[in-house]
Amino acid sequence: MVENCNKFHLQVSGEYCSDMAAKYGITLKQFTTWNTGVGDSCEFMWGDAYFCVGVIGFTPTPTPTKATTTAKPTTTTTKPGNGITTPLPTQPGMVSNCNKFHLQQPGEYCSDMAAKYSITLKQFTTWNTGVGDNCQSMWGDAYFCVGIVGFTPTPTPTKPTTTAKPTSTKPGNGVATPTPIQSGMVANCKTFYFVKKDQTCASVLSSAKVTLANLFKWNPAVKSDCSGLWAETWACVAVL
């Protein structure tokens, strides 16, 4: 954290760098510059910690006003030419051939929405260009495109359904490994975290106090953007 910080924010569960930056009217670049430990893409952010959101002499730019309603859409618009009604509010930059929409929920990040609809993070950011390449500009409480005309999502791989207590031991380290787990978990894991049903990637990182970079390193099946994380499985969150 920079030495000339004069405003601080305590991260809460489900909150990401972009959320904190938006809350205080600063850019993601400013946030990562003032909090270098989080990494350029926020991949090393800690949960339950204070972060710098203002420095001496800095005046934040007022955040553009956007729709704040979270109620079921009562007003819709029709995209010219495709006859599909689009719910409001939406973030600017949505493609015109969208035919499936999702209302962002508190603590939900781009990768969570992408995973829910079996699409890639790249597809999500392409269909919703306003969020930015790394989802750094995503609005909360808005509708996002999660499907377009002519697109068929790839079926989500079947995962184990058992949630049995630990029954096996990783060779050589003497640490009992619970099941089920995703393939590719490192052999030297010492601490495991059970991913609950409907839990977001951000909440897993916060609850387990692990960075996305390490979660991916120790559980490669979750993918670098967390889109491959399975619910009701055990993930490695610390190693020997």
Automatic annotation (TrEMBL):
<dbReference type="InterPro" id="IPR018392">
    <property type="entry name" value="LysM"/>
</dbReference>
<feature type="compositionally biased region" description="Low complexity">
    <location>
        <begin position="64"/>
        <end position="80"/>
    </location>
</feature>
<dbReference type="InterPro" id="IPR052210">
    <property type="entry name" value="LysM1-like"/>
</dbReference>
<dbReference type="GO" id="GO:0008061">
    <property type="term" value="F:chitin binding"/>
</dbReference>
<keyword id="KW-0147">Chitin-binding</keyword>
<dbReference type="InterPro" id="IPR036779">
    <property type="entry name" value="LysM_dom_sf"/>
</dbReference>
<keyword id="KW-0843">Virulence</keyword>
<feature type="region of interest" description="Disordered">
    <location>
        <begin position="64"/>
        <end position="86"/>
    </location>
</feature>
<dbReference type="Pfam" id="PF01476">
    <property type="entry name" value="LysM"/>
</dbReference>
<feature type="region of interest" description="Disordered">
    <location>
        <begin position="156"/>
        <end position="176"/>
    </location>
</feature>
<keyword id="KW-0732">Signal</keyword>
<protein>
    <submittedName>
        <fullName>Uncharacterized protein</fullName>
    </submittedName>
</protein>
<feature type="compositionally biased region" description="Low complexity">
    <location>
        <begin position="159"/>
        <end position="171"/>
    </location>
</feature>
